[in-house]
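Dock adenosine-5'-triphosphate; give full complex structure.
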Amino acid sequence: MTHDATSVKRDVGKIKRLGIMGGTFDPIHYGHLVTAEVARVKFGLDVVVFVPSGVPPHKHGVEISPGRDRYMMTVLATATNPYFEVSRVELDRPGPSYTVDTVREFRTRYGPGTELYFITGADAAVEIFTWKDAHELLKMCAFIVATRPGYCTTRLEAELGRARAVSTHGVFVLEVPALAISSTDIRARVKHGDPIRYLLPESVENYIRKAGLYL
Ligand code: ATP
Ligand code: MG
């Protein structure tokens, strides 16, 4: 694993609870940031590491911005929060990005003394059994599943029942303030010349404009 694959600045031994926020982050927006922050406080996480995906296995067919742009936007968006970090682990790993491989790397790096919490939105979580080595993954870390507009909580609870039956670390539902923001919508708004201000940090909007993304 490369040096910055996980925490760069911190003493590995001091981290008892580590959040991992996976995503394409094309671009990162306030839905991601609010979810990570609410999870951090609610679960007493020492740090939340944002992990931009390399080649996301679930998104073939959709055109994705280069990893360096998604990494830069994620760094810009998280820079003001001292508890947030960004990892290049998936960007630097060749081939499709599988969560199980990423969690395994964090586990190796941090050892058994650190509880790992994978943070995901409801839309992604209901697909968990389609993820590579889902059963193994559910035995490797806890899951924090954030509510997301468009995903009915009752149905979510039903779907998560199966995951809980397999999980050894817990599958928790986290209520976050409903933000009907998605990267897909932001990309479409840029393309059509509609405003994206207040949907994502200003620094990320500036980066999008400067790099000419989503046109
Ligand atoms: P896209 O529209 O390209 O799929 P997205 O907005 O869903 O983008 P992703 O990078 O796919 O963003 O999401 C990363 C993680 O963040 C996923 O687990 C997703 O469910 C979660 N997430 C994204 N937006 C929100 C939101 N508004 N509220 C709660 N969770 C969210
Ligand atoms: Mg998504």
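Observed: The mean pLDDT is 92.
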